[in-house]
Design goal:
With 126 residues, the chain is mainly beta. It is 0% helix and 47% strand. The chain contains no helices and eleven strands. The protein has strands at residues 4-7, 10-13, 18-24, 36-42, 49-54, 58-60, 68-73, 78-83, 92-99, 115-116, 120-125. Strands 2, 4, 5, 6, 9, 10 and 11 form a seven-stranded mixed β-sheet that branches.
Length: 126
């Protein structure tokens, strides 16, 4: 069973918005607020890159700062990534991941994360 499930991806025009959800699945990752949650993305032919993370603090990649917002709903056991002003460069598969070591600041290093979802596709057309 995949411990995290992403949803909310799709096709959107440049300048548009999407909200991705990352929900705990089963009891492996629950409650989700006990973990550092990170969002990563991977474009075709490129390495997976950090987008945003939430623990006690929030951290964003420079490329999304001011456009993306990460938030957590403890009641829903879900972490969201709200994306505004999307550009074609934001296209890729978006993954959420959980780091069981609850650091004060989320790590941007994918190797630090222990559990991953299967990803959701985001495509931004020009």
């Amino acid at each position: 069973q995949v411990p995290l499930v992403e949803s909310g991806g799709g096709l959107v025009q440049a300048g548009g918005s999407l909200r991705l959800s990352c929900a705990a699945s089963g009891r492996t990752i629950s409650p989700i607020n006990r973990y550092v949650i990170g969002w990563f993305r991977q474009a075709p032919g490129k390495e997976r890159e950090f987008v945003a993370g939430i623990s006690f603090n929030i951290r964003y990649a420079d490329s999304v700062l001011g456009r993306f917002t990460i938030s957590r709903d403890n009641g829903q056991d879900t972490v969201y990534l709200h994306m505004d002003y999307l550009t074609p460069e934001d296209t890729g598969v978006y993954f959420c991941a959980a780091d069981q070591e609850f650091t004060i600041v989320p790590s941007p290093n994918a190797n630090e994360y222990d559990y991953w979802g299967q990803g959701t596709q985001v495509t931004v057309s020009s």
